[in-house]
Write a structure and sequence with these properties.
This protein is an alpha/beta fold. It has one domain. About 55% of the residues lie in helices and about 5% in strands. Strands 1, 2, 3 and 4 form a four-stranded mixed sheet that branches. Helix 1 packs parallel to helix 6 and helix 3 packs antiparallel against helix 4.
Length: about 250
């Protein structure tokens, strides 16, 4: 499962570096289909349409947040940065306004990324032929849970499920990987996050943007985990399992 995702990321990275050719995009699509089997049907053309739509939406989110950040930056036109004046009344007012505005910007961006992620999850649910086997929720972790998300933050989340059976686990693995594929097709995942042994030390100059949490040993806060045996399906949890994990932490 993890090796499939690594291969998918690698093909997308190649496509980013060879934009005049479709062969790497086709290979990424074939990798998905190899994993899906008959459980998901998605043509190459339809996949391209979905990907372009997602790219357009994430760029719209970024554009809006850039504008908001520029307005915050203007605050410092009136900020007295001389060391002896840092505690002045005017500087304190600017600092307080800055903190308040940054919280608002981060809150707005977090809401945008939450909605964007929800849309990807809903799209993935529609792509899976299997019906949902039980009630579940996708629960944010990391910066999204803290309300500190930027359009370049990685995505950390878990599946909170009503019941865990072998059939249910199989469904949520499929759903998780489908979500990963749609996000990976944005081509914003640097290869170093995928923990590919053969590429250790490779100077990766690719884009770094919206992506899932990586597969490195200290990462993997995603439903399937980071590929290590102790993290397999670590974040596909029932309520009681989540409470147990929470009390341990």
């Amino acid at each position: 499962m993890i090796s499939v995702f690594q291969a998918h990321t690698l093909y997308n990275a190649c496509a980013l570096r060879d934009p005049g050719s479709k062969r790497w995009l086709i290979k990424a699509h074939q990798t998905q289909c190899l994993y899906w089997g008959q459980k998901v049907e998605l043509s190459f053309e339809k996949q391209q349409e979905i990907t372009q739509n997602l790219k357009s939406q994430i760029e719209t989110i970024r554009s809006g947040n850039r504008s908001s950040l520029k307005s915050v930056a203007k605050l410092f036109d009136s900020w007295d940065c001389a060391v002896e004046n840092l505690d002045s009344k005017r500087s304190k007012i600017v600092n307080n306004v800055f903190v308040d505005k940054m919280r608002r910007v981060l809150g707005s961006c977090t809401a945008d990324i939450r909605d964007f992620t929800n849309m990807i999850i809903q799209q993935s649910i529609k792509l899976c032929k299997q019906p949902q086997p039980c009630k579940f929720a996708a629960v944010a972790m990391g910066s999204l849970a803290r309300g500190e998300t930027t359009p370049y933050s990685d995505l950390e989340f878990l599946f909170l499920v009503e019941e865990k059976t072998s059939y249910n686990i199989e469904y949520f693995r499929l759903l998780a990987m489908t979500i990963f594929f749609l996000i990976g097709n944005l081509q914003e995942t640097k290869l170093k996050y995928m923990n590919i042994e053969e590429l250790k030390g490779f100077d990766d100059t690719g884009k770094n943007g919206f992506k899932i949490d990586g597969l490195q040993p200290k990462a993997g806060n995603i439903p399937t985990g980071n590929g290590g045996p102790e993290q397999e399906d670590k974040f596909i949890l029932t309520v009681s399992e989540l409470i147990t994990e929470y009390t341990k932490i």
